[in-house]
Amino acid sequence: MTIALTGATGQLGALVLEKLKARVAPDRIVALVRTPEKLAGSGVTARAFDYAVPVSLAPALDGVDTLLLISSSEVGQRTEQHRNVIAAAKQAGVGHIVYTSLLHADTSPLTGLAEEHLATEAALTESGIPFTLLRNGWYSENYASAIGGAVAAGGFIGAAGDGRISVATRDDYAEAAAAVLTGEGHAGATYELAGDEAMTMAGLAAEVSRQTGKTLPYRNMSEADYAAALLGFGLPEPVAQMLAGADAGAAQDGLFDDSHTLSRLIGRPTTPLSETVARILG
């Protein structure tokens, strides 16, 4: 069986690739990337693959049995890009697609992010190709810049209120993806994946305060005020709006899940927040 993954040099994809290499022979792995030269000497087959160039996609999927479709990072363009990949997978005869969606996408209050994931899930259903949904929750590493900024500024800001956020590391999610790609009986399944430990932003502030020895409070803001603050930090408007909207959704527990599905899939507890904070602080 040949396993292919998109975005194989990205932040999540590179981790999945390494975990796959530990589970199956490298010659069974196809890494789909914009620049195959980056994987020279890796032992896997690297093929040029660009979501936005439909004509190139089906040939790159030739001979692939299972495809991990890692969602595009280009918010606003994902639906079209993912549909391109799914159509190419059907044309190439791919037998199973595993897709990285959003936690509780069908009921999520993070509507700005959920919309494109739901459209992709619908496209998968329409394709007739057997698929598995990995509905990933929030990455612990998403807070790296916030932690650095808070240490420099003397506190955290956000719009997440007292919402519970079940964070896990990219490494945790990558391990789950590798387990599904190399395991049996996952076709048709939807996995709501999230960390065992739920934090609030005040809890994150307390943990960073503990590890740094500084008092770093959390100040909650309205979604609009937080978006304006992010714009003031130099973020592009679509990114600022997306992040502020995600915080507003988190305030409604949109990033909370206590099913422990992720830790069951990987066979161990998810990485504690304290470890991620320590790593970010260096």
Automatic annotation (TrEMBL):
<feature type="domain" description="NmrA-like">
    <location>
        <begin position="2"/>
        <end position="247"/>
    </location>
</feature>
<protein>
    <submittedName>
        <fullName>NmrA family transcriptional regulator</fullName>
    </submittedName>
</protein>
<dbReference type="InterPro" id="IPR036291">
    <property type="entry name" value="NAD(P)-bd_dom_sf"/>
</dbReference>
<dbReference type="InterPro" id="IPR052718">
    <property type="entry name" value="NmrA-type_oxidoreductase"/>
</dbReference>
<dbReference type="InterPro" id="IPR008030">
    <property type="entry name" value="NmrA-like"/>
</dbReference>
<dbReference type="Pfam" id="PF05368">
    <property type="entry name" value="NmrA"/>
</dbReference>
